[in-house]
Specification:
By secondary structure, the chain is an alpha/beta fold. It has five helices and five strands; from the N terminus they run αββαββααβα. Helices cover 36% and strands 18% of the residues.
Length: 154
């Protein structure tokens, strides 16, 4: 007989121990799942790569993963640029003070130009000043559709 563990289809923030595991994660780390042994599986933007790509087919959960990662990093003090060409996938973030949410293609275009300026500014800062600059999360949902619409806009 094989010893298997049934994994939940959905994790809820209220599930026993989940909030504590998230709260215990170091800054720059976000939960992406739970192993069969109940151990947190996380992405670490400090020790691993500062970039995360979530790629799924329609209905595969990429919006949910982006929402979860963005919310966790916002909780840690990050700021976020959320580009949501469908205009409804990330309404949860629209009114948050450290989030810039853009849904129409003209707004996304302008936000990307602003992002380029911000990255230039950050690259010119002396290393000792970077510690005071909040992490910037850029969440782009539905990249294929966004790029298609941007190409038409340009």
């Amino acid at each position: 007989m094989t010893n298997t563990t049934t994994l939940p289809q959905v994790l809820h923030f209220t599930d026993p121990g989940l909030r504590e595991q998230i709260e215990a994660m170091p800054e720059g780390t976000a939960l992406i799942g739970i192993s069969t042994t109940g151990r947190a599986i996380a992405v670490d933007l400090n020790a691993e790569s500062p970039h995360v790509l979530v790629c799924t087919a329609t209905g595969g959960g990429s919006t949910t993963v982006l929402r979860s990662l963005t919310a966790q990093f916002l909780h840690q003090g990050a700021h976020a640029l959320v580009l949501d060409v469908r205009q409804i996938s990330h309404l949860w973030a629209k009114a948050l003070p450290t989030v810039t949410h853009r849904g129409n293609i003209a707004g996304i275009h302008d936000a990307l130009l602003g992002l380029a300026d911000e990255l230039k500014r950050r690259n010119q800062l002396p290393d000792h000043d970077l510690a005071d600059v909040p992490r910037l999360i850029v969440a782009i949902d539905s990249v294929n559709g966004t790029l298609h619409q941007l190409a038409r806009y340009w």
